[in-house]
Amino acid sequence: MSKQAIPEPGRSNAKGKRAPQVADAAPLANDIRPGQSIELLKELHILTRDGKLNQDSRRKLKQVYHLYQFIEPLLAEVLQQHPDVTLVDHGAGKSYLGFILYDLFFKALQGAPHIYGIETREELVKKSEELAARLGFGGMSFVNLSVADSITSDRLPSQIDVVTALHACDTATDDAIHFALAKQARFIVLVPCCQAEVASVLNRNKGKSLGNSLTEIWRHPLHTREFGSQVTNVLRCLQLEAHGYKVSVTELVGWEHSMKNELIIAQYRDLPRRRPTERLQEVLRTLGLEEMGQRFFTQQAA
Questions:
Q1: Is residue 55 situated within a structural domain?
Q2: Structural domain contains residue 71
Q3: In what order do the strands lie in the sheet with 262-268?
Q4: Which of 83, 132, 189, 219 is a plausible cystine mate for 140, CB 3.0–4.6 Å?
C-alpha cells in the first residue's frame, strides 16, 4: 500500500485543501502563558509535535483562555477562604479542561488542591491517569463513573468547591446540577449540550393543550427542538436560583461555530428562594411540564 503524501504547510493537498499554516513568524511566547507546560499542550494537540501553533490550534487556544478567564476568578475566590481548592469536572472526556486548569492554576498552589475528572469511558480515564502521572500532576484523579452515580459515590469528597460540566449530553447536565447541590458547591459552571428530554415531553403533550395558543411556539418539530432546548436552560437557571444561587448566562466567544456555546455560571449566595421557586413551578404548569418537577426540583419539593 502506497503512503499518502502529507502536504507541506500552506500548500494544497490532492483535494485542493490547504494544510494548516504553522505560525513561525510570531514567537510562541506571545501565545502561551508563562510557565505553561509545552508537553501538555502537545499532548492536547494545541501545539504541533515540533512545538508550534497552526491556525486551528491558535483558535483552540483562544477558546481555552476565554473559558479560563471565567473560571479562574472563581477558583481565586475559593482560595481566599482555604488552600485546598477542589473541583469536579463532569463528562470530562480526555480531561482537556481539567489539565488546563491544573497547569494554569492548581499546580502552583500550596496545600492539597485537587481536580476530579468524572468520565464513563474507561479507556479515556486510563489515558488521563497516564498523562497526569507523566506530567507529575499529583493533584488530579480520574473516576470511571456516570454523573448520576457520582452523586452518591464514596470516591469523592462530601463537599466540592467548584463543579464544571461542559457539553455533558442531555440529562447529564441536570445530574451535574444535582451533584453540585448535594456537594454544596460554591460555584457551578455549565455549557449545556443536546437537551432532548423537555422537547420530548412538549411533543408528547402537545395534543392535550391545543386550545392554548402558546403551543404554536412548538407546533413544528424544528421549533419544538429549539424551544425545548431554550426552556431546559431557563428551568435550570430557575432551579439554581431556587437553591440560593446567583446565576449569570453569557456566550462563549470563539465558539460561534457551535450552537452549544451558552455558558451558565452559578455562585452560591444564599439568596431568597421563594420567587424563583414559584416562577419555576409556574413555567412547568404553563407549558404542561409538571411531570418534570422532580428533575427540576426545588428545596421545598425535594
A1: yes
A2: yes
A3: 140-144, 114-119, 86-90, 162-169, 187-193, 262-268, 245-251
A4: 132
d(CA 232, CA 262): 12
pTM score of the predicted model: 0.86
Closest Cα to residue 235, out of 290, 155, 154? Answer: 290
Q: Please indicate, yes or no, if residue 4 is contained in any of the structural domains.
A: no
3-state secondary structure of 261: coil
Cα pseudo-dihedral 283, 287, 292, 294, rounded to 10: 30
Q: What gap in Å lies between CA 165 and CA 156, rounded to an integer?
A: 16
Look at the chain and count its residues.
302
Measured CA to CA, the distance from residue 275 to residue 249 in angstroms comes to 19
> Any idea what DSSP says for residue 245?
E
- The total number of structural domains in the chain stands at 1
Say which CATH number the domain at 48 has.
Answer: 3.40.50.150
Identity of residue 216: E
Contact of 242 with 298, CB cutoff 8 Å: yes
**Does residue 116 form part of some domain?**
yes
Q: Cα(245)–Cα(129) distance, rounded to whole angstroms?
A: 33
Domain that holds residue 118: 33-194
Q: Are 282 and 266 in contact (CB under 8 A)?
A: no
Encode burial over 126-157: b for 16+ CB neighbours within 10 A, e otherwise. eebbebbeebebebbbbbbbebeebbeeeebe
pLDDT of residue 183: 98
Of the listed ranges 84-93, 141-150, 209-218, the least confidently predicted one is: 209-218
